[in-house]
Amino acid sequence: MNDLHTISLRSLALFVAVVDSGSFSEVARREGVAASTISRMVQQMEATLGSQLLFRNTRNVSPTEAGMQFAGAARTMLAQFNTAQAQLIDQQQQPAGLVRINAPVSFGQRHLAPWLGELLLRHPALKVEMVQTDDFIDPLQEGTDLLLRIGELKDSRCHARVLAHEHYMLVASPAYLQRCGFPATPDDLLRHQCLLYRGVHGLQRWYFRDDRGQWQNPPVAGALVANNAETLIIAAENGLGMVLFPDWLVGDRLQQGKLVRVLPACEAATKTAPQAISLIWPRAHPLPLKTRAVIDFFVEKVGQPAYWTR
């Protein structure tokens, strides 16, 4: 037997049509080709398979035993192909399948997790696997479809969609400010309780931009240092001191009146380079509809400006 790969799906479909109709000419008329073309195609198929598939006479054609058997197998193959093709088309028209998302712990809890229910209701064929970690993740190595990362955009191997830019705010509770007063300048912070975050890179520095546009790093200290932002925010709400955190982390507390901005006219940061909140995906792969749907959804929900700043 010769190589079966020389038989195309179209050849199989035309052969099944000939078996069903019993006529080369009828199939040729329906398909808009010459009857001799279909006849030669069947002859080539018989040569490839090493078996006679059709009995031919002047009026019609009929399948041999081998032809009947092969026609049954061909129908199965064509049905499987049509099913697979339909599924792919459906997936292109409707987001479907698993999307693996990786996000920082705090941002994921506050600004991704609350929207997942609506995402899955909007796209019922979608599934989400959510991993939250503050560790570095290489999307090309970890099999992640979509990463949310906060920082500078450096990795040229990836595409990115910026959701928002991170802005830092110095905040404290009304009770603390009533007790200790408002600082007039960043230098006054040395006389205040500053609640400090210690991460994997050490104690977080506080920067403030002066009138000349230069970043200054005034000395700050306080009675509490922690490696968890939520712990420090709760401490600030309870009047223990001031915290410097991004708007997405303290915006809801400001809206609720639990915290108040301090030095609002002074630009603040913990890193002097601009920090973007971005959705990132590997450049090496085309963007599937399911991933694009997730990106579009979160872009819509965050909005412009980001909802936590309104």
TrEMBL record:
InterPro entries: LysR-type_TF_proteobact-type, LysR_HTH_N, LysR_subst-bd, WH-like_DNA-bd_sf, WH_DNA-bd_sf. Keywords: DNA-binding, Transcription, Transcription regulation. The keyword Transcription regulation applies. Gene3D superfamilies: 3.40.190.290, Winged helix-like DNA-binding domain superfamily/Winged helix DNA-binding domain (1.10.10.10). Residues 7-64 form the HTH lysR-type domain. GO terms for molecular function: DNA binding; DNA-binding transcription factor activity. Belongs to the LysR transcriptional regulatory family. This is LysR family transcriptional regulator.
